[in-house]
Structures are given as C-alpha cells and as structure tokens.
Model the fold of this input.
Amino acid sequence: MSACSCTGRPQRGFTLTEVAVTLCILAILAALALPSVSTALTNQRLRAAGTDLMSSLLLARSEAIKRRAIVEVAPLTAGNWSSGWSVTDTNTGEQIDRKDALGYRVAVSLAPSAIDYGRNGRLTVTGATRLQFSDQDLASTGMTRCISIDPSGLPRVQLASCT
Done:
C-alpha cells in the first residue's frame, strides 16, 4: 500500500536520498569554488595594502611641500612594514597619518628603513625607491604588488614583482 494522508491527497516532500544527493552536489561545488575565493581574498588584501601605502605617500609628499619640512613615512616597528606605518613631520615630531598592521598574510619585501620627502616633495635619496607586497603563504604564485617611487616623489603601483 502507498502512504497517503487522511484527506486522500498524496504526501509531499523530499526523500532522505534526494536530500543526501543534493547536499553532496553542493559540497562538491563549494570545494571547487573555495580556491578561487581564496585567490580573490589574497588579491584584495594586496590591493588594499598597496592603496593604503599610496595614499600615505601622496599625503607625505603633499605635507612636505605645504610645511616646507622633511616628512617621513616609516614602519611602526623598525624594519617591519607589515606592522603598519606612520607619516611624521621630522622637524616637529607631529604624526600626520598612521596605518595599522596590514591584512592577514601580507608580507613586505624590498622596503627601505624609511621614506623621506624633502621640502620640495622629492625623495631625499637618489634613485627610485621600491616596496613589494606579496602573500606570505603563496609567494610562489606571483601575486605581488610593487610600489615604486620615482626621484620626483610620485609613487606608482605595478601588478608585478619589483625585480
């Protein structure tokens, strides 16, 4: 005999087998999508770090010209740009801007100990200065952002390695 309700209508719903098959298909699709989501998150973290540094460098250059003083962009922890950085007027010691630690797994390489802008908005060192952001766990994938600052003090982002 078939199962039916007391009103004479057949029962509606899903069988346990149908629910199990649907869950298995969803699990497989989620497993396939996970690597691309991870890559997108990594790219977003690198993009955000590059944008934050670019805005700090442009601010430092502008403030150096406006104040007619040397303005320095330096990591919060000596030699560790991943800990964040500050923009400081070296004459007065006034902190103009501060960025906290970078996103999860963002590593910084090829970075100088500090970046100083002179009164004219140019770098105080000769030649170009570079900083490279990369994913510390996926460095072999080539996902990097390179910030290069030309001698005139203008920063530029490249979606490639600094080499």
In short: The beta strands are 71-77, 80-89, 95-99, 106-109, 115-117, 129-135, 144-149, 155-158. The chain has a mean pLDDT of 85.
